[in-house]
Task: structure prediction
Amino acid sequence: MLHIDAAELDRVFDETALADSLGVMFRDGCEQPVRHHHSMTVPGEPDATLLLMPAWQPGESVGIKVASVFPGANSRGLPAVQASYLLLDPHTGAPLALLDGARLTVRRTAAASALAARYLARQDASHLVMVGAGALSPCLIRAHMAARPSLTRVSIWNHNVDKAEARARALRDDGIAAEAAPDLETAVRQADIISCATLSRAPLVLGDWLKPGAHLDLVGAFTPQMRESDDRAMQRCTVFVDTRAGATKEGGDIVQAVDSGAISYDDIAADLYDLTRSVHPGRTSAQEITAFKSVGAALEDLAAARLAYERVSS
Result:
């Protein structure tokens, strides 16, 4: 059995091939049961959570992500979230590879946003604003730049401006024209693509700031209590999601806008299944404002794990 760590995943992945793999998986489809979610008691510490995310294509590939959330681990200097991905032989069930689940998740999440941008962002988009400066931000920036090579300017905004400056500096060292954005409203009003990856529980990007033709990529708000955009943004945008089942249950930007009456679930124009199968064309005009809300899906993990295994084992 192969052991594929985070560094190896970064070595074998490239943004275009990873987005391609996700596109094929969404187009072809696979079995992905509802995520298993189990609470666990940890004596003397906050309860922990065990998450299981299986997916399979009969005769093609089988895999499962095991993730754990142990809040008490932070007091020991360890990350609260840990994850591993087990890829199995589709004919015998024998283990093929154990992959770093955290890195796999980061890379496939960025690839899903890039896949959506192929359909939803303007072909001539030149200015990307990244909202948030965490571990996911450089992956999202690189993924969007692969999807839209026309992007020549990157602005990074974060509540902590020092973190935004540090992230921009690291990207400049890699040859990307990145800068810290001191004011979010000013940056968003100029942006062609706005990508958000934060843990915000209150809107950061307001709908009135979005210029005609903008594309809003909402990645961070992965529970119903979190959100990165306001109701006005959901009303002004043509709304797309990765999967309807996930986004309408876990995506706070969608759930809260529906609860307030700003939109209904019927206002979701399409998901990635529809886009990759040409059921919906995606962006229909240069002036249209689009939004993509993702919460993740087990098929994305499976597509990424299979690509990594094929490249490492070849």
Q: What stands out?
A: The longest helix spans residues 101-120.
